[in-house]
């Protein structure tokens, strides 16, 4: 657990090294040092990004959940045609 936290901490510290000085000036204060290019054009950009993050995290959660415990126990489920083959 300590190695994971230390790795994540080091990764977040290194994010400041990814943006060049020209791009850093174009970004809002929250994103300075993290991203390149022009900053967000409006507040809708933030809403779109956070909605996308929410969808991706939700998909990741359910993918891991259903991969770990699929929950199909009936003998006539379609997966049985492959497993019994």
Walk me through the structure.
The protein is mainly alpha-helical. It has 4 helices and no strands. The protein is elongated and about 60 Å long. The model has no long low-confidence stretch (mean pLDDT 81).
Topology overview:
Blueprint: H1 2-14, H2 21-26, H3 43-68, H4 79-83
- What is the count of structural domains? 2
Termini, distance in Å? Answer: 41 Å
- The Cα radius of gyration reads 21 Å
| Number of strand elements | 0
| Class from secondary-structure proportions | mainly alpha
- Quote the average pLDDT: 81
Main β-sheet: number of strands, strand sense, barrel status?
A: none
Number of helices: 4
Indicate the proportion of strand residues: under 5%
Name its key features.
single chain; 4 helices; 2 domains; 85 residues; elongated; mainly alpha
What's this model, at a glance?
By secondary structure, the protein is mostly helical. The protein has 2 domains: 1-39, no CATH class; 40-85. It has 4 helices and no strands.
């Amino acid at each position: 657990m300590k190695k994971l936290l230390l790795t994540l901490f080091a990764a977040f510290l290194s994010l400041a090294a990814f943006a060049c000085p020209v791009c850093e000036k174009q970004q809002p204060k929250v994103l300075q040092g993290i991203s390149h290019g022009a900053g967000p054009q409006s507040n809708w950009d933030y809403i779109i990004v956070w909605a996308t993050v929410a969808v991706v995290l939700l998909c990741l959660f359910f993918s891991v959940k259903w991969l770990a415990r699929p929950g199909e126990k009936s003998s006539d489920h379609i997966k049985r045609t492959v497993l019994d083959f």
